[in-house]
Amino acid sequence: MRAASSQSTNMIAADIMTDNPRTIRSTDPVSDAVDLLHSMNVRHLPVVDGRGQLIGMLSDRDLGPLMRTLVEGAEVERMVVPLSERAVADFMTGGVVSVGVDADVSEVIELMLTERIGAIPVVDDADNVCGIISYVDILRVLGAPKELERRTSVRT
C-alpha cells in the first residue's frame, strides 16, 4: 500500500533515504536474512518478489527471540540447519506501507508514527525498492541542519 504524496515542505524522501538498500526475496532462507541483518548492522530488510517488487518487510522484531539468541552467542550451528529450511515469507510482515521518492518528509514521519514502524521503504512507480528511510535517518536530519542543507543542495 503506497501512500499518496503531498508537498508541504522542501524535504522529500529522496533527500533523506538510504539509496538502493539491500533487499531479500520472500523465498530466501531466513538464515540469509539473519546473516544480512547482523553483518550489515541494520534492523530492517525490504522483502521483494521474483520481479523485485516490494511485498513486505522483515525486521529484527519479526525474528524476536531468534535474534536475541543469536546475538547472545548461542550455538549458531545448531540453529542454522532448521533456519535454512524456513523462508523469509514465514517471518516477514506483508502489506507494508511505502512512499514514493517525492513524498514529503512530514508525511513520512506521520506514517511512521501512525503505523508504529521504524522504517519505511521508498519505491518507484513500479513498486521496486529504491530506498529506505529509518527513524535514524529522520533523527540524523532533524538533529543536523547542515546535513539537511547538504542533501537538499545536491537535489536543486
List its salient traits.
156 residues, alpha/beta, CBS-domain, four-stranded mixed β-sheet, 7 helices, globular
In a nutshell, what does this entry contain?
The protein has 156 residues and is α/β, with parallel strands linked by helices. The protein has helices at residues 13-16, 30-40, 60-71, 76-84, 105-115, 135-143, 145-155; strands at 18-19, 24-25, 44-48, 54-59, 93-94, 99-100, 119-123, 129-134.
Layout: helices, strands, pairs:
Elements: H1 13-16, E1 18-19, E2 24-25, H2 30-40, E3 44-48, E4 54-59, H3 60-71, H4 76-84, E5 93-94, E6 99-100, H5 105-115, E7 119-123, E8 129-134, H6 135-143, H7 145-155
Parallel strand pairs: 2-3, 6-7
Antiparallel strand pairs: 1-8, 3-4, 4-5, 7-8
What does this structure look like?
There is one protein chain. The protein has 156 residues and is α/β, with parallel strands linked by helices. It has one domain: CBS-domain, CATH 3.10.580. The chain has helices at residues 13-16, 30-40, 60-71, 76-84, 105-115, 135-143, 145-155, and strands at 18-19, 24-25, 44-48, 54-59, 93-94, 99-100, 119-123, 129-134. Strands 1-8-7-6 form a 4-stranded mixed β-sheet. The relative contact order is 0.25. The model is unreliable at 4-8 (pLDDT under 50).
